[in-house]
Amino acid sequence: MLDWKKYFYPEEWYIAIRKRKNNKTILENQEDTFLLLKNTWRYWCADPFLVEDNDEIFVFFEAYDRLLRKGRIGYRKILGKKIGPIKIIITENCHMSYPVVYKDHNGWVMIPETNAKEKVLKYRAKKFPDIWSLGFSMHDGCVVDTTILDFNENHEPTSFLAYEKNIDFKNGNLVCYAYEGKKLIKLTEEIDTNSTKRPAGNIFVSDGIEYRPSQLYKNTYGEAIIINKILAKEKNKYHEEECKRIYPRDLKCNKSIIFDGTHTYNCSDNYEVVDFKKHQFNLLTGCICLLSLLKNAKAKF
After folding, report:
1. Distance between alpha carbon 99 and the CA centroid of its chain, in Å?
2. Which among 77, 74, 39, 29 has a CA at the least distance from the CA of 55?
3. Contact in structure between 252 and 31 (CB atoms under 8 Å)
4. What integer pLDDT is reported at residue 10 of this predicted model?
5. Number of alpha carbons in the 13 Å side-chain half-sphere of residue 184
6. Is the predicted pLDDT of residue 200 greater than 90, yes or no?
7. 248 and 262 in contact (C-beta within 8 Å)?
8. Picking from 6-15, 163-172, 194-203, 275-284, which range would have the lowest pLDDT averaged per residue?
9. I need a labelling partner for 85 at 20 to 30 A (CA). Which of 153, 183, 185, 256 fits?
């Protein structure tokens, strides 16, 4: 029997943004309201990363294409209270998400999640923020959510954290890599027995202390964001301790919606972003899924 709810009430994600107040982060401030960004009929958005460049604010994210049933990389420009349209900037023949963006001495760089290719790919902006070109593969293997752990004095990454694949990414390994010669070299790994270690955004600083967001995936995907205090990140040694769990009910939004999950947090000098999950009715998604089932069934005969 078909699970109609699964197809017509799919998991959808939304991005929400707010201005930082008194340099506080989500760790100290859960009172101020986030502004929910509207999705479109074709795309819903998740995994937001912020960029502030020459007084311009951009949010990069996974734009999930309901028609093609895979993630693309897109961005929106924030113009005060006005939100620019979704613009798709990178597409591959696989699902893409989690677009880590940073600027080195040669310009803007992006490292999105491309686990379906079993590679970690590095892109460089030919014309920021719209035109990107593929550079090279930093790593061959099934890892997700590659996150910069540390930079050198030239603002070039020297080490990364990533999550190694198991069957469903629920209890994988948190791996620390050195970045040497355009390749990731494994230094340490920690088995994630409690489903709490998968990266959930960039490392950020609050009151001079470094924190790392991670995902809680104990009962359901995107259950909560965990804020971890970094205790050590020297070569061959990474250690952290959990400080706080933030559930969607802990955060305020300008829409009266009861969300089912949250799994990414990032901040810049002046803004903060999170994402929210909601299972809700979508006729288009349901019909596309059923057509795909019929096509697959027909191919078997």
Report:
1. 6
2. 77
3. yes
4. 82
5. 29
6. yes
7. yes
8. 163-172
9. 256
CA nearest to 279, candidates 4, 12, 5, 2: 12
Task: For the sheet with 119-127, list strands across it.
Answer: 97-104, 107-113, 119-127, 131-140
Helix boundaries (H) for the chain: 4-8, 283-299
Q: Which amino acid is at 70?
A: K
Burial 51-66 (b: 16+ CB within 10 A, else e): beeeeebbbbbbbbbb
At residue 65, what is the residue type? D
Cα 124 to Cα 107: distance, rounded to the nearest angstrom: 8
Task: Report, in this order, helix, strand and coil percent for the chain, each rounded to 5.
Answer: 10, 55, 35
State how far the Cα of 151 lies from the Cα of 183, in Å rounded to an integer. Answer: 15
**CB neighbour list of residue 255: distance below 8 Å, 6 or more residues apart:** 36
Q: What are 44-77's pLDDT values in tens digits? A: 999 999 999 988 999 999 999 999 999 999 999 9
Q: State both tokens at 163.
A: 């999550």
